[in-house]
Amino acid sequence: MALVGTKKMFEMAYKNGYAVGAFNVNNMEITQGIVSAIAEAKAPLILQISRGARSYASMPYLKAIIDTAVAENPEIPIAMHLDHGDTFETCKQCVDDGFTSVMIDASSKSLEENIALTKEVVDYAHDHGVVVEAELGQLGGIEEDVVGISADDIHKHLTDPDEAIEFIERSGCDSLAVACGTSHGAYKFKVEPTLAFHVIEDISAKLKDYPLVMHGSSSVLKEFKDLINKYGGDMPDAMGVPEEAISKAAKMAVCKINIDTDLRMALTAKIRQVFSEKPREFDPRKYLGPGREAIKEMVKRKLELLGCVGKAGECA
Ligand code: G3H
Ligand code: 13P
Ligand code: ZN
């Protein structure tokens, strides 16, 4: 099977009450860890590439790695998605580079500017058979290439459900990332969060069968935080979205759940452990190999949570 778009995946996810995992890739080991978990679990997959990943690894390398994963797993539907595209030019370049799905994130602009830019991307992408994710409302947190609002302000920037309906109708986007209290990175909250599930409920009540996307969905699991801290890291105040909230969202209209930080933490914890226990180790295969295995285990855990294990066949 060649790379696929997300239309069928979202149709099935919506209908059957699960979500598809969208995992960020930056190199070969991360991709292999994700894909080996997916192959075992027989789950549909969205591999997403940020602008930071494009400049770190370069598109030809990433595309060759993903093409290899697709060729080796013909029974698994895999989409290649641009995460947080910020301009028309970036999205156009990704469509031209063979992405099957692109995100235009104009959420920091005014409603009118967001609609206009999203529509421009939709027109180009649809002409080339590519689906478009847009974002309305603002998420918090700061990643290398994705800037958000501060954790304290999250609830002031939730997606307005009425605006969301207008936005979807006028822009023509195929899925919408909503701000419902999540945020990017490892330091999402200072206290245990309550997500604004009413945002998801209100949009899905007004617009049936429309797929929503949840960004910033890492849980920052205590055991991985503890391992990082035990082996020389310093992340005591890291906090994520509780796993129960993620699985609740997956059963609702949320059809795509974005996870990057938890994979980074799994890889980092394992590499730190190897360095700490074997200070004379200098063969990259001896720490990247276990790191790749740690990513695989983390992804398997996520797939159970999202409810998409065994769903590859119906999404193909
Ligand atoms: O949402 C952002 C993703 O975690 C990607 O982060 O921009 O550092 O590659 P990045
Ligand atoms: P996390 O930082 O919570 O993993 O979110 C990743 C994300 O939303 C990528 O777009
Ligand atoms: Zn994101």
Structure notes:
Helices cover about 50% and strands about 15% of the residues. It contains 13 helices and 8 strands. Helix 2 (about 30-40) links the parallel strand 1 and strand 2 (about 45-50). The model has no long low-confidence stretch (mean pLDDT about 95). The protein is α/β, with parallel strands linked by helices. An 8-stranded parallel β-barrel has the order 1-2-3-4-5-6-7-8, surrounded by 9 helices. The protein binds glyceraldehyde-3-phosphate, 1,3-dihydroxyacetonephosphate and zinc ion (ZN). Glyceraldehyde-3-phosphate binds next to helix 3 and strand 3. The site of zinc ion (ZN) has 6 residues, from loops.
Features:
316 residues; 8-stranded parallel β-barrel; 8 strands; 49% helix; binds glyceraldehyde-3-phosphate; binds 1,3-dihydroxyacetonephosphate; binds zinc ion
Give a short synopsis of this structure.
The protein is built from 13 helices and eight strands. The chain has helices at 7-16, 28-41, 51-57, 59-72, 88-96, 111-127, 161-171, 197-206, 222-230, 243-251, 261-277, 284-306, 312-315; strands at residues 20-24, 45-50, 78-85, 101-104, 131-136, 175-178, 212-214, 254-259.
